[in-house]
Amino acid sequence: MAISFVAASSVRVANSNYAQLAHTISSGSDILLLVAIALTTHENRVSSVTWGGTELTQHHEGGENQGDKAWIWVGTIPLDAASGAGTLVVTLTSSVGRWCIGLCEYTGVSQAADPFRNSAVTNSGVNPSYSLATATDSDGLAVSAAALNSGKDATPGDTERVDQASASPTQRIHMMEASGTGSPVTMNASNFADDTFYVWVNCLQVPQNITITPAQAEVVTSASVGTVIEGTDTIIIGRTASVIATARVGAVAVIEPIRADLIMNVTEQ
Amino acid sequence: MPSETNIGVVRGVAVGSYGQTILITLRDLDGVVQDVSSYTGTRTAIARPPAPGRKIVTATVSFNSDGTDGVVSFSWASGDIDESGEWELQITLNAASARVKSFIGRMPVVPALQEDA
């Protein structure tokens, strides 16, 4: 099963430390929400990001560590077999004048706490154009998020899912993905200015199956005390599984009863 | 006819033993199994130790299945069978308006080679 983009949502926020972003989850399986937040400065940090009251897992936070520069927060939450409308709730440590939130929903993604296969690639710079390629993975989808500030913008070279700008002078969040699984994501950026953008890139992976095979399972109708019965099962990483790998026959003593007859007249003669 | 070696004799109980199931088949003098399924009230096994003046011990009796086969079961609790020798045993069954008792049987309790810890 390949990773597939489903839908995206985004919102811009002004003069607040709190925002909500409504989004309707599909009824597919192995769902993952990828969330990226663009802030103005590193001094105003993300305090909490929740979906349905559950905190997202933060995967990256960084930016130009000075002054009024681009700062990005990236997190995910797996939502296996979830469906319906929900709300992303973001809280910052303090009010920020202009900031943006982007959300991308994917299906067919590993439900593990870390759904990424490759190391994150992050960069910021001053080049007017920028091309960034990830290591490819045949079972993965390269995704990227970029935070830009001070009214700057970029033209992504691959599939863009979110382009959300705040009020002027704009903060901006771009969320992109490669053209398909196994392909690198590139951002042939133009119009980047000095110290005003920060890019995060990584590679989502599909659910991983492992098989535990200590021994072939067999039907045991009787076994002596101490016999170890083993079996096989398949565990998909990131999913809850109950596995009985081994069972040891317990010691059960069977004591024959004492038998005897006593005379008792119950029925009439 | 039931086995003569076991009529009225409960063999196999040793002094200090407990917890082992004892199955008693209730028969008439012709050896016919008695249907005791209607005796759903109190059912008791009573054993009297051989030493004079000692108190009886009792155990709750259950049907091994449903009582139609005449088989009842019980077991002694720890401390009940505390001396060897010839014990006496009797089963009492109660119904709503009747009480029946078995003939008194023998329960020869085997001595122990060493005292229980």
Topology record:
The complex is a heterodimer of chains A (269) and B (117).
Chain A: E1 4-25, E2 31-39, E3 46-51, E4 54-55, E5 57-63, E6 71-79, E7 84-107, E8 121-124, E9 140-148, E10 159-165, E11 172-177, E12 197-205, E13 209-212, E14 228-230, E15 233-236, E16 246-248, E17 258-263
Antiparallel strand pairs in A: 1-7, 2-6, 2-7, 3-4, 3-7, 5-6, 8-12, 9-11, 9-12, 10-11, 13-15, 14-16
Chain B: E1 22-27, E2 43-48, E3 57-60, E4 62-63, E5 71-74, E6 85-95, E7 98-101, E8 105-109
Antiparallel strand pairs in B: 1-5, 2-3, 2-6, 4-5, 6-7, 6-8
Please give the largest β-sheet of chain B: 5 strands, antiparallel
The tally of strands of chain A reads 17
Profile the largest sheet of chain A: 7 strands, antiparallel
Shape of chain A: elongated
Q: What amount of the residues of chain B lies in strands?
A: 35-45%
Structural class of the secondary structure composition of chain B? mainly beta
Low-pLDDT residue spans of chain A: 212-221, 232-245
Average predicted confidence as pLDDT of chain B: 90
Spell out the helices and strands of chain B N to C. Answer: EEEEEEEE
Shape of chain B: elongated
The amount of helix of chain B comes to under 10%
**Radius of gyration computed on alpha carbons of chain A:** 28 Å
Mean pLDDT of chain A: 75
Number of strands of chain B: 8
Q: How would you classify the quaternary structure?
A: heterodimer
Number of helices of chain B: 0
Q: Give the low-pLDDT segments of chain B.
A: 1-5
Radius of gyration of chain B: 14 Å
User: Which structural category do the helix and sheet elements of chain A fall into?
Assistant: mainly beta
Distance between the first and last residues' Cα of chain A: 80 Å
